[in-house]
């Protein structure tokens, strides 16, 4: 990214001016005498561990997508549903492990660090592929932020609706607009977006990870209670039958379900940013692989339970959001807790996915406009209990504008399942499969036509086919929704 001027604080709270070049090894720092304070690249000592990395990944992965898995399983049935979910778990873990090896260029202990996903692509592939990667990565991150804004509004409306049913009875319509809730979410995110970077948002990711377990556990409990009340396990081997919907709609829904499942595991495009928060030794790759294993095991367990038990409880009528498939008024307080947990979780998850965009924009502007006071002038903000940090006017304006844009787009296109499917399709193959495979083969110098080379090529081709199928189904879903949709007039 060229040379960027920043400011960090020493342990004595002295302000030190730093000049960082993200692609060269000639980092210049005014004081590098104490290795306890600074890493080998002149940056403040990284303190992340396998547990903080796991928290970041779980926060990113166990998002609103988990709530659509019962619906996705219903479209595919008892055989294909769990198999597709396990397939994506394996692919995601394997590809993330390949990507983790590429964090340092050359030696895994002393090689040059790559701070972002694009830096890894630049170091190993270069050329036009860097620009393509950047467009796909940041478009996908932008789309995920939109999806999380929509998901949050659905949970907020569910809280309002459950209390309305409890107060007025289930015959009451209790409909409400999603717009006020999206605006409310946007205002909170504007404040949270002023957190300087991902490494300083670890506490938010930890809270969000706890919340994800909370609402997933409640969803599981409600599903088990419904199964016990039904006295039987619902669903079928092949999913929603052609009689319930048209044959073409069944095909589109199946494709969209695959996209939803692929979305539920997408986090490779922020893996390097997470890995860059880790301390060493051991090597960052070793720690990140452990975090990948822990987080993939945890998320897959929850996914299988939520998807399968949710489908068993509701059957082929499973809703797009697992928690809205149960009576809003019984038990209304438990559903309120679950939906509050979803809201808190998505507040943190939004930051995990938006921070890479903020970092990229701010580094680019710092490089090209470093003489402007609008860019360089810093304002010291004190937060009770959290200390103080420096805020630039550009950060305030850009991040506020970004959150505002995602909120407006969410109000225009509030299609929860369709958005998840499209985001899964856009990001799965290029960011989770293609680039990690290409970079790993260059990084490890995999011999052409060797067994591993052939395996990786075939796996990449298979995942490309899956991505195309998921994308077609999700786009078809959006087209169907648009036929009856009026922007800014969505209510449930």
From TrEMBL:
Carrier protein involved in proton-driven auxin influx. Mediates the formation of auxin gradient from developing leaves (site of auxin biosynthesis) to tips by contributing to the loading of auxin in vascular tissues and facilitating acropetal (base to tip) auxin transport within inner tissues of the root apex, and basipetal (tip to base) auxin transport within outer tissues of the root apex. May be involved in lateral roots and nodules formation. It is a multi-pass membrane protein. The chain crosses the membrane at residues 50-69, 76-95, 138-159, 202-225, 293-312, 332-353, 422-442, 454-480. It comes from the Eukaryota. Belongs to the amino acid/polyamine transporter 2 family. Amino acid/auxin permease (AAAP) (TC 2.A.18.1) subfamily. The lineage of its organism: Eukaryota, Viridiplantae, Streptophyta, Embryophyta, Tracheophyta. It comes from Ziziphus jujuba. It is found in: Endomembrane system. Keywords: Amino-acid transport, Auxin signaling pathway, Membrane, Symport, Transmembrane, Transmembrane helix, Transport. The gene is LOC107425350. Residues 46-479 form the Amino acid transporter transmembrane domain. InterPro entries: AA_transpt_TM. This is Amino acid permease 4.
């Amino acid at each position: 990214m060229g040379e960027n001027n920043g400011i960090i604080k020493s342990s004595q709270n002295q302000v030190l001016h730093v000049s960082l070049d993200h692609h060269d090894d000639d980092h210049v720092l005014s004081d590098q005498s104490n290795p306890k304070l600074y890493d080998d690249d002149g940056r403040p000592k990284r303190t992340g561990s396998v547990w903080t990395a796991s928290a970041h990944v779980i926060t990113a992965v166990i998002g609103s997508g988990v709530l659509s898995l019962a619906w996705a399983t219903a479209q595919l049935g008892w055989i294909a549903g769990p198999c597709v979910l396990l397939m994506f778990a394996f692919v995601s873990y394997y590809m993330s492990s390949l990507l983790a090896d590429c964090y340092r260029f050359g030696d895994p202990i002393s090689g040059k660090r790559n701070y972002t996903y694009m830096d890894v692509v630049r170091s190993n592939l270069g050329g036009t592929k860097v620009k393509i990667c950047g467009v796909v990565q940041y478009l996908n991150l932008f789309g995920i932020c939109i999806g999380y804004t929509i998901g949050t509004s659905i949970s907020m409306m569910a809280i309002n609706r459950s209390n309305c049913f409890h107060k007025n009875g289930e015959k009451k319509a209790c409909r409400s607009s999603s717009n006020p809730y999206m605006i409310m979410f946007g205002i909170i995110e504007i404040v949270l977006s002023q957190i300087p970077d991902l490494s300083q948002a670890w506490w938010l990711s930890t809270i969000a990870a706890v919340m994800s377990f909370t609402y997933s556990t409640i969803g599981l409990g409600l599903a088990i209670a419904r199964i016990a009340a039904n006295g039987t396990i619902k669903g079928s081997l092949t999913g929603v039958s052609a009689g319930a919907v048209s044959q073409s709609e069944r095909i589109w829904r199946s494709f969209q379900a695959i996209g939803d499942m692929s979305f539920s595991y997408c986090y490779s495009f922020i893996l390097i940013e997470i890995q860059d928060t880790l301390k060493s030794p051991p090597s960052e790759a070793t720690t990140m692989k452990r975090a990948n294993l822990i987080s993939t095991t945890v998320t897959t367990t929850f996914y299988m339970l939520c998807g399968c038990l949710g489908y068993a409880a509701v059957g082929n009528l499973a809703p797009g959001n697992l928690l809205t498939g149960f009576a809003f008024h019984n038990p209304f307080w438990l559903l309120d807790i679950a939906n509050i947990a979803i809201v808190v979780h998505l507040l943190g998850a939004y930051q995990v996915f938006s921070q890479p965009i903020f970092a990229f924009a701010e580094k680019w502007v710092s490089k090209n406009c470093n003489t402007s006071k609008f860019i360089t002038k810093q304002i010291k903000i004190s937060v009770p209990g959290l200390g103080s940090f420096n805020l630039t006017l550009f950060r305030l304006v850009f991040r506020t504008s970004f959150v505002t844009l995602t909120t407006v787009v969410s109000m225009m296109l509030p299609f929860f399942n369709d958005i998840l499917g499209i985001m899964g399709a856009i990001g799965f193959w290029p960011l989770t499969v293609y680039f990690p495979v290409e970079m790993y083969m260059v990084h490890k110098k995999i011999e052409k036509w060797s067994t591993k080379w052939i395996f990786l090529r075939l796996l990449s081709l298979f995942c490309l086919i899956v991505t195309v199928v998921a994308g077609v189904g999700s786009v078809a879903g959006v087209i169907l929704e648009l036929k009856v949709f009026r922007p800014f007039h969505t209510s449930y």
